[in-house]
Amino acid sequence: MQIVLIRHARAEERRLLQRDASRALTAAGRKRFRRAARGLRAELPNLDRIVTSPLTRARETAELLAGAYRLADVESQTLLAPGKPPAKLLAWIATQPPASCLALIGHEPDLGRLAGVLLSGKPHGFMQFKKGAAALIEFPKTVRAGGGVLHWQLSASQLAALA
Questions:
Q1: Measuring CA to CA, which residue among 81, 23, 10, 15 is closest to residue 56?
Q2: How many angstroms separate the CA atoms of 21 and 102, rounded?
């Protein structure tokens, strides 16, 4: 199984009385991630599924990615919302088809913690995901904590340069 962890693109700043879940992508964030998504597709031509946090900025990022891959469907998964335990998300990932390539779109510091679990078995965020960044982690055998292999981690501008 291949898993592409992606942090949402640049979003609106938090405003007084605005719910964090409703923050949308900025115009610049959309433009930058469209280029990054094209670069991701050049590096990784096939994605089977795009699964996203239910928050607006992550969902909008997922929709841009789906456009680059010409995929009609984006799935929402509450386990990708901020503050969810990475062990529960790992258990969900393990139930997915073993030959699939999943893009998981979420938030920091949760993606860093998830990467820690996937690569080392520990929920320590030793990787940091800037906005629009992605990392490819592969499980050569079964999906289990510490069983992943990091192939690459690229920033949004590095991905865009691949387009």
A1: 23
A2: 23
3-state helix, strand, coil in the chain (%, to 5): 40, 20, 40
pLDDT per residue as tens digits for the range 128-144: 999 999 999 999 989 99
Cα 7 from Cα 133, distance rounded (Å): 6
Q: How is residue 22 annotated by DSSP? A: G
Report yes or no: 142 and 9 within 8 Å, Cβ to Cβ: no
The CATH number of whichever domain residue 23 belongs to comes to 3.40.50.1240
pLDDT in tens, 76-108: 999 999 999 999 999 999 999 999 999 999 999
Q: Number of folded domains in the chain?
A: 1
Whole-angstrom distance, CA of residue 108 vs CA of residue 93 = 19
Range of the domain at 112: 2-162
pLDDT digits (tens, 9 = 90+) for 51-64: 999 999 999 999 99
